[in-house]
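User: For a reading group we're discussing how well predicted structures match intuition. Take 1-acyl-sn-glycerol-3-phosphate acyltransferase. Before you show the prediction, I'll give you the sequence so everyone sees exactly what went in.
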Amino acid sequence: MRYVRTALFYAMLVLSTIVLGLCAIGIVVTTRRSDWAHLCGRLWGNLNLWAAGVPVEVHGLERLTPDRPVVYAANHQSWFDIFTILGKLPVQFRWLAKEELFRIPLFGHAMRMIGYIPIDRADRKKAFASLEEASRRVREGASIVIFPEGTRSRDGVIQPFKKGGIILAIKSGQPIVPVSLSGSYSILPKGAWLVRPGRIRMTIGHPIETQGFSIEDRDKVIFLVREAIRQYLTTREGGVLEAETSTREVRSAAS
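Assistant: Thanks. Here is the predicted 3D structure of 1-acyl-sn-glycerol-3-phosphate acyltransferase, as structure tokens, for the group to look at:
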């Protein structure tokens, strides 16, 4: 059954990417409405969740503020995080995504047309330019989704955060909304191809205001955001913070 489900998922992934990618491009070209084109992305996410047989529990929708631009910061365990956020986060937003995705034929072009922002992690200068562009977009009223870990976790445990995404949020002056994604790693771990049955829980946390913080406060903001995300993960997924590790080592040495 898993092989049948996996085959259905990949067939849907290819078909939906082609059809909805063309649809998104066509909408932007003919109407100049990237917000309408984003709805194609939402449908794309939901179709692929359905094809994989992955139900999603969503909590915290009452904490969303669609009329205010924010930076959504989510942990990253699997491809299915992308499907989940696109399909189940019922607001307009744009992705800050690694540049490699924009090189995928059709898919990448559709992402550019909708207004998603590529970031080249291998080129420091280009990466900072992308962060500045994303910060400007937020100040002008667009919400952005980032994965502060930078890439998928190899073991499902939340990784240390990169500073770039948090700096863009501080520069924008807008709130960071933590998004906790639990259960997606077991469905499709990094490096695997066989889809496993499972359920994803997405929890939207309380907004964290960035006004009053400066770039020098980035480590403090990272701690606040990472802890807010960990709050709704399992004990295993949440791992431990460096501060907790140090405390445990001190207690161990003292005993």
